[in-house]
């Protein structure tokens, strides 16, 4: 049996190695066009390589072309990623619309003198926030002590009436309204403040923290509001279209107190007349605020 099996194997190997000739003739002239000399091993090798190339090309076609969507698994994966992306975009859009609505609501609150709605804590719910724990380092403690010493020095300077210019420059004055100064401070010419032209209906902000002492209307200056601050400072805001605070109200620095306008006989156009008084004397606001 082993001998027969060996003979069969040798015959099979011999058949694979036998060469065959493939000749192609022209049908009309019987002229020989092409001649191929092949073995069965060559045919198997060529067919195998050709099959591998075809499989590779078909695979690449499905991977790098839209034909890949025809595969159910690929289609479901791509659709899932698109759904997640659309969900993130929709959540961000809702958040942006909410912020816009609150912005317009705050404008109405300013116009009617109501309390503002602070929405600085609004965040995108699509983000995953991790709990953060802060620890105080040695450098942080040194920096805190240095800042506290500087603040104590600033307070001592402000309390010293002999250094008036230095004390006022250590205060942080808020810009009452963003705009252009069209009429500067001229105490000799009878102009005890500055005139600022800004956008219509722009809110007027308190330059420092204090208490409203005057909120009224006069024939010459229209709607005026006056705020008493610490360190014998007084700020006045004239020609407003409306007032958002009343006498006795406590205001913080940067808080809206009025709306810019054009009221009063002395007004020549929409603007804010802004005055700052220190120890009973007017001072130039541009010396302490960069307009």
**CATH homologous superfamily annotation of the domain at 180-287:** Glucose Permease (Domain IIA)
Fraction of residues in H or I helices: 25-40%
**CATH fold call of the domain at 180-287:** Glucose Permease (Domain IIA)
| Biggest beta-sheet profile | 10 strands, antiparallel
Q: How far apart, in Å, are the first and last alpha carbons?
A: 111 Å
Please write the string of helix (H) and strand (E) elements: HEEHHHHEEEEEEEEEE
| Rg, alpha carbons | 43 Å
Supply the key terms:
291 residues, two-stranded antiparallel sheet, 10-stranded antiparallel sheet, alpha+beta, 5 helices, 12 strands, Glucose Permease (Domain IIA)
Describe it for me?
This protein has 291 residues and is α+β, with helices and mostly antiparallel strands. Among the domains are: 15-63, no CATH class; 138-169; 180-287, Glucose Permease (Domain IIA) (Distorted Sandwich). 37% of the residues lie in helices and 24% in strands. The chain has 5 helices and 12 strands. The protein has helices spanning 2-17, 40-63, 72-112, 138-158, 164-169, and strands at residues 19-25, 32-39, 180-183, 194-197, 203-205, 210-218, 222-229, 233-243, 250-251, 256-260, 272-278, 281-283. The strands form 2 sheets. Strands 3, 4, 5, 6, 7, 8, 9, 10, 11 and 12 form a 10-stranded antiparallel sheet that branches. β7 (222-229) and β8 form a beta hairpin. Mean pLDDT is 79; it is low at 153-166.
What topology does this entry show?
Layout: H1 2-17, E1 19-25, E2 32-39, H2 40-63, H3 72-112, H4 138-158, H5 164-169, E3 180-183, E4 194-197, E5 203-205, E6 210-218, E7 222-229, E8 233-243, E9 250-251, E10 256-260, E11 272-278, E12 281-283
Antiparallel strand pairs: 1-2, 3-4, 4-11, 5-10, 6-7, 6-9, 7-8, 8-10, 8-11, 11-12
């Amino acid at each position: 049996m082993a001998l027969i099996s060996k003979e069969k194997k040798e015959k099979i190997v011999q058949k694979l190695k036998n060469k065959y000739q493939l000749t192609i003739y022209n049908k009309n002239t019987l002229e020989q066009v092409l001649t191929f000399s092949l073995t069965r091993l060559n045919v198997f090798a060529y067919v195998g390589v050709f099959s591998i190339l075809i499989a590779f090309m078909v695979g690449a076609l499905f991977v790098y072309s839209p034909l890949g969507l025809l595969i159910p698994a690929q289609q479901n994966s791509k659709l899932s990623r698109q759904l997640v992306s659309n969900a993130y975009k929709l959540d961000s859009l809702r958040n942006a619309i909410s912020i816009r609505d609150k912005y317009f609501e705050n404008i109405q609150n300013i116009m009617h003198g109501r309390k503002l709605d602070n929405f600085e804590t609004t965040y995108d719910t699509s983000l995953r926030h991790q709990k953060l724990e802060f620890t105080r380092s040695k450098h942080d403690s040194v920096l805190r002590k240095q800042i506290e010493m500087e603040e104590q020095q600033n307070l001592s300077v402000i309390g010293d009436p002999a250094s008036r210019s230095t004390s006022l420059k250590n205060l942080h004055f808020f810009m009452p309204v963003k705009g252009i100064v069209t009429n500067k401070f001229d105490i000799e010419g009878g102009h005890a403040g500055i005139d600022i032209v800004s956008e219509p209906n722009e809110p007027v902000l308190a330059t420092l923290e204090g208490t409203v002492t005057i909120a009224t209307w006069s024939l010459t200056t229209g709607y005026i509001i006056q705020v008493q601050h610490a360190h014998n400072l007084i700020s006045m805001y004239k020609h407003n279209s409306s007032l958002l605070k009343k006498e006795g109200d406590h205001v913080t620095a940067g808080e809206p107190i009025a709306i810019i306008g054009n009221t009063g006989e002395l007004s020549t156009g929409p603007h804010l007349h802004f005055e700052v008084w220190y120890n009973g004397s007017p001072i130039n606001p541009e010396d302490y605020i960069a307009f």
